[in-house]
Specification:
This protein is α+β, with helices and mostly antiparallel strands and 257 residues long. The protein contains five helices and twelve strands.
Length: 257
């Protein structure tokens, strides 16, 4: 294992304090502005990444190492921070979905396999600009080693099919957040029942460009119009009024393993 500096208690306190301050500022700013656009999502990701582990001696995004006996303490504090964020948001916006699916639930056979992209919503056009040239897209989710999920996307852009694979950390310590392995993106997943679709999932992503989008995926290539209408209604309630539907004019590409 590559050696790094051991994270001292003072450094850990600073990381957690920064995360708490970011969350409190987020909630305060949302109350004042009466909307949900993410405040400084880059800083938010950076602070959260400082307390995420991914090896026997927990290696942090900062390059520090934490001894195993500190994991329980960090997990409790991290869970409290995430809970504070979501509870604060729900207090401001009653139409928020229920709590996201836990990492232990996502990392089961029920959620493995193919998911077809249906639609994406965002607070502004920048949040969905990456979907503009996409005719169709399908995700394949598989279990990886060391509490990871292997996510492969195959999408059609113009006449060409493209494929890319990422690893996401699905560690209970970060529950319910899924961090991309290089910590440049964060995702959470909700049960599709929120939009009256038992064969769907809804994801929220803060991507590597710090753009935020909510996406609807389905097991089936086509879903009823009422599901799309429900997704549109729920995201509009969250002030995500820019919506993009997958055109689906040229068929799906085959997911390459």
């Amino acid at each position: 294992m590559e050696q790094g500096k051991v994270l001292e208690s003072a450094d850990l306190h600073i990381a957690l304090t920064n995360t708490q301050r970011t969350i409190e500022e987020y909630i305060t700013n949302r109350k004042e502005a009466n909307n949900l656009q993410v405040v400084n999502s880059s800083l938010f990701k950076k602070n959260l990444c400082q307390i995420i582990c991914h090896s026997e001696k927990v290696s942090l995004a900062t390059g520090y190492l934490i001894d195993a006996d500190m994991i329980d303490i960090i997990w409790g504090l991290f869970g409290t921070a995430v809970g504070l964020l979501y509870a604060g948001m729900q207090g401001m916006v009653p139409c928020l979905p229920p709590a996201p699916l836990s990492t232990s639930v996502i990392n089961t056979d029920q959620y493995m396999g193919s998911w077809h992209f249906v639609a994406a919503a965002a607070w502004d056009e920048d949040g969905i600009k990456s979907f503009k040239d996409t005719d169709s897209s399908v995700l394949d989710i598989q279990k990886g080693a060391n509490s990871t999920l292997i996510v492969t996307e195959s999408w059609r852009s113009g006449e060409e099919c493209q494929t890319k694979t990422w690893n996401y950390w699905a560690h209970s310590m970060a529950d319910p957040l899924l961090f991309r392995e290089d910590f440049d993106a964060i995702a959470v997943i909700w049960d599709g029942k929120w939009v009256n679709c038992s064969s769907c999932i809804v994801t929220l992503m803060i991507d590597d460009a710090d753009e935020v989008s909510t996406m609807l995926f389905s097991r089936d290539e086509k879903i009823p119009d009422n599901v799309i209408d429900e997704f549109k209604s729920k995201t509009e309630c969250l002030l995500m009024e820019d919506l993009m539907m997958a055109p689906l004019t040229k068929g799906y590409c085959t997911v390459k393993q």
